[in-house]
Amino acid sequence: MKIAVIGTGYVGLVTGVSLAEIGHHVRCVDVDVRKIEQLRTGKVTIWEPGLEELMVKNMAKGRLYFTTDYEVALEQAQVIYIAVGTPESEDGSANTQFVEQAAKQIATMIRDDVVVVMKSTVPVGTNDRIYQLLQENLKHNVRVDVASNPEFLREGSAIEDAFRGDRIVVGANNLKAFEMLEEVNKPFGIPIFKTDIRSAEMIKYASNAFLATKISFINEIANICERVGANVDLVAQGMGMDKRIGHPFLKAGIGYGGSCFPKDTKALIQLAGNVAYDFKLLEGVVKVNQERQTILVERLLERFHSIEGKQITVLGLSFKPNTDDMREATSIIITESLIQLGAHVVCYDPVAMDNAKGILNTEITFASNMIEALGNSDAALILTEWDEFKEVDVQVFKQMKSPIVFDGRNCYAPEVMAEMQIEYYSIGRPNIPITIVK
Ligand code: UDX
């Protein structure tokens, strides 16, 4: 089939590449000239395992094409995906202006019948509005249908998720749209859940809000574990064995970040508020997460009283491993607090440092590896559970001025750290007291 994808951000690019991989002819369009130029040279604009190989392969096969020209992209398209950003507005609601602009462009340009598919995360009711907008702005006598098809891709495993996701949700109000999307998605071999448009829009928000709730829940349990001498990792393991609960998203840590959870939870609270509903549970989830983000700084202050003039190493900057994405990363808040408290901050991340340099405080020093980052420091904070940190010989911490580690992601066994004479604080697990020799 001939498909156009509007927006080559995270979702648009992965969608375009995966649709080309299953045999469709895909044209991706973006207003960002530099981005399109880069993609045309076969270089991806985001760090995502497996994406570049698939992109280059499908470009070479002539199934994937990038352009800044809407006319070229939309020409003869049977299905048009909208995958532009819906950033958070000041009041927490999702800003749909880019989605609306895309719809207007489509309406003025199409000359054949199409199905417009919404990939962007939009508040419930947006697709109905987009349908109206399309009808009002049509320049030719063609039929336009609208479908909601939310994405559930995780950064770092987006390719895996695109080909092996649990479900594809399609919301539509007519047979033709369902049939077209069934035909498009069939080669993925993933179950398709067909529903009405508003329910499909809601599934996306409800899913992300539920996952965020699991995280805040286990983080609260971690706080209690610390007070009663239980181990949150073992508690989560035992809970997860119950199929009704499940293991995923029960990892206690320093809270959730990224481009989806913080934005979508606030948007759902706002959406509920618009229909006079107070979503108390989700408000609690968001509050718990906000408090969570500074927990390591509080622990550092409990330990040192003042960190003025101290050198603190921060390991891991991206909001989670296997991505260079810094959006809503806890490292932003933590490094800023450390600087405000007078510390000298040395950071290291395996892939996110280039992105971080434009975002984090300019007083921060960036080290080129873990060893360099740790040398001469008074304490180390682990914010992202990269394999490089988890698999390191913990001896590496012994070269610090004082081997004191605050681990926000439970990367190491407390017994091992105690044996190595490393003072170690983790999340929701009993501390094993040691006497520092140095
Ligand atoms: C998420 C959803 O998983 C995906 O379905 C949606 O489409 C987009 O948002 P993503 O933002 O890529 O994906 O990251 P995810 O792996 O879900 O993690 C989000 C945050 O939660 C990270 O900061 C992570 O560190 C944190 N997290 C996750 C935990 O603290 N504990 C967990 O058990 C799981």
UniProtKB/TrEMBL annotation:
Tell me the SMART domains matching this sequence: UDPG_MGDP_dh_C (SM00984)
Keyword NAD annotated:
yes
Q: Where does substrate bind?
A: 152-155, 204, 249-253, 257, 320
Which GO biological process entries does UniProt record here?
Answer: polysaccharide biosynthetic process
Swiss-Prot/TrEMBL keywords: NAD, Oxidoreductase
GO MF terms here are: NAD binding; UDP-glucose 6-dehydrogenase activity
Sequence ranges assigned to domain UDP-glucose/GDP-mannose dehydrogenase C-terminal in this UniProt record: 313-414
Annotated EC: 1.1.1.22
Catalytic residues as annotated in Swiss-Prot or TrEMBL: 260 (nucleophile)
Q: Which InterPro entries match?
A: 6-PGluconate_DH-like_C_sf, NAD(P)-bd_dom_sf, UDP-Glc/GDP-Man, UDP-Glc/GDP-Man_DH_C, UDP-Glc/GDP-Man_DH_C_sf, UDP-Glc/GDP-Man_DH_dimer, UDP-Glc/GDP-Man_DH_N, UDPglc_DH_bac
Top enzyme class: oxidoreductase
Annotated NCBIfam families: NDP-sugDHase
Family per UniProt?
A: Belongs to the UDP-glucose/GDP-mannose dehydrogenase family.
Task: Specify the protein name.
Answer: UDP-glucose 6-dehydrogenase
